[in-house]
Amino acid sequence: MRRADLHVNDAVAILKRTPLTISALLDGLPDTWAHATEGEGTWSPYDVVGHLVHGERTDWIPRARHILSGVSRPFAPFDRTAQFTESEGKSLEDLLASFTDLRASNVAELLAMSLSRSDLERTGQHPDFGDVTLGQLLATWVVHDLDHVGQIARTMAKVYVDAVGPWSEYLSILHDRGPGGS
Amino acid sequence: MRRADLHVNDAVAILKRTPLTISALLDGLPDTWAHATEGEGTWSPYDVVGHLVHGERTDWIPRARHILSGVSRPFAPFDRTAQFTESEGKSLEDLLASFTDLRASNVAELLAMSLSRSDLERTGQHPDFGDVTLGQLLATWVVHDLDHVGQIARTMAKVYVDAVGPWSEYLSILHDRGPGGS
Lengths: 182, 182
Fold this sequence. Notes:
The first copy, chain A, has helices at residues 8-15, 18-26, 31-34, 45-58, 60-69, 83-86, 92-112, 117-120, 134-157; strands spanning 123-126, 130-133. Chain A has 182 residues and is mainly alpha-helical.
């Protein structure tokens, strides 16, 4: 395994493409897939896209600005379930369009920050963890994208948990996580 | 959770978009991501794309034809590691282009089969499992795509397993599977 330090260009290579990845996975899909869940208390692909939209608005870039501003108060806590009210009345296509637009402007703002190695070592106060660096925040933004791409794939795969018959044994994604995870 | 029966149109909705999803995830990415693994004995995103190419050539549609032909011998076993020789000398972009072309012609062939509900109940002999239905084969094709999308996301996420610092606790994808899984 390569355990890499964060480099802004490598992070941006993922961040800028996630809207295209998620749109490729979901845009125009029947509800069989887009509204499937892994069971009670778990999220559908539609819910995940709403969560990503909320993150673009309130989490990553606002926290990066917070660190660079040097203020000592902790970050505002992130609301992990805001999408259950914010997505109301919006179609999957509305949410994908919002995510695409917000991500493009956030990546542009990240690049405009022209972060140096020493900027990446600057710290802010996480409400749970205490000191975190800007580099850790940006690495988390990347991994958070990939985590939700994996979650969408896993949730859709489980629609066919019975339909695959004996092949279930070879399809490890069907055995990852039970209801209650997200 | 919705545990759906297989419907050809729902399956095709996923199958036809997987090349775009995988290309969106990987096309043009730095080697930091494309050649990362989860450790000894695990596959990189590059390896996964080679495996998907081999499946298009030898697994799904050939097995569907085999079932519809009514012959009683078992399917030829599928070589899960063929990509380690077949991908030699090929770039990631070569493999993505092959996967895209092969998948498009395989989906066209699947649609041209105009499968009825009773066709989906027809059986073939799997070398390990014995009787499997055409419907189970097609559901497995879909889940196999999503399994590898999830694997690519997980493998890339782990590049930043250290870089995320204390956020690791919130990023469940970093704790799925150890070296040795694929």
